[in-house]
Amino acid sequence: METIKFVDVTKCDGCRACMVSCKNWNDLPSEIEEFHGSYQSHEKITANTWNVITFNEQERKDGGLDWLFRHSSCMHCVEASCEKACPEDAISHTKFDSVVIDYDKCVGCGYCVQACEFDAINLATYIDKNGKEFRKAQKCTQCTDRLEEGMQPACATACHTGAIVYGDKDDLLASAEERLAKVKERYPNANIYNPQGIKGTNTVYLLADKPSTYGLPENPKVALSQVVWKDYAQPIGKAMLGATTMAVIGSFIANSLNKKNESSEGEDHHE
Q1: Fewer beta carbons under 10 A from the terminal one: N or C of the chain?
Q2: What pLDDT, in 10s, does the model give residues 208-240?
Q3: Distance between CA 95 and CA 144 in Å, rounded?
Q4: Which backbone phi and psi does 176 adopt, to 5 degrees?
Q5: How far apart are CA 232 and CA 84, in angstroms?
Q6: What is the C-alpha to C-alpha distance for residues 193 and 205, in angstroms, rounded to an integer?
Q7: Helix, strand or coil, per DSSP, at residue 178
Q8: Where's the 4Fe-4S ferredoxin-type domain (predicted)?
Q9: Half-sphere exposure (CA, 13 Å, Cβ side) for 155?
Q10: Per-residue buried b or exposed e for 177-201, using 16+ beta carbons within 10 Å of the residue's own CB
């Protein structure tokens, strides 16, 4: 069964319970930010704040105001730019289609950060036992550790309005279309955000307005250079490295045998 996380922003009341539950479950440190002129508690996703409720104030045609909230976190793209950009194969998809980072493989190069069109992945700084700083990429895991135990993502469990749900992909997409038809009267620009330029996402949204209103790219795509690098150049490079290594080893063995044979022939000649 394919599963997704579905976020209906029209049900969100901006309570931030998802943010708190994410912090608690993943043992992430608190981050105190200076006031930046908004009800929004954090300006954006960081290496230690994996989801943020964004606040957008929008004026209606009747002169009233709407608050457009969005639970902002990693999209878990089917074709993920961060995965394509990683030179160490430290980013991969799980059986739940969540995109996760292998911290043992991550070297903190930051290519994934540059590649992500959703600004959902960042570098965290750590200090080793010798006092030397090092970096690791960090982001939402869609609570893969909870999914492995048959539980829901922490954010979905904490959401009291039902704005965040996790479950069967086909069922949730069907429900999303039904819900979309209902909210169109109030939000004529409402849409299902599941961009096909990256073959869809594992976090699907029902948005009340066009994606750009929420700071989302209209039609994100993996850069051709990343596809060429990950799917062609890197495998060929590794294959060539393997062939070269074997050639060097073979040459070393051949030279050793030749020297041994020459030494034996020399001894026979002297005898």
Answers
A1: C
A2: 999 999 999 999 998 766 666 566 556 666 566
A3: 9
A4: -65, -40
A5: 11
A6: 5
A7: helix
A8: 3-33, 65-96, 97-126
A9: 31
A10: eebbeebeeebeebeebbbeebebb
226 contact partners, CB below 8 Å, separation of at least 6: 81, 84, 85, 115
Residue 175 tokens read as: 């429900």
Fold of 3-222: Alpha-Beta Plaits (3.30.70)
* Domain ranges for the chain: 3-222, 223-271
Residue 206 identity = L
**Residue 260: predicted pLDDT:** 45
Q: Are 172 and 6 in contact (CB under 8 A)?
A: yes
Each residue of 59-108: pLDDT tens digit?
877 878 888 999 999 999 999 999 999 999 999 999 999 999 999 999 99
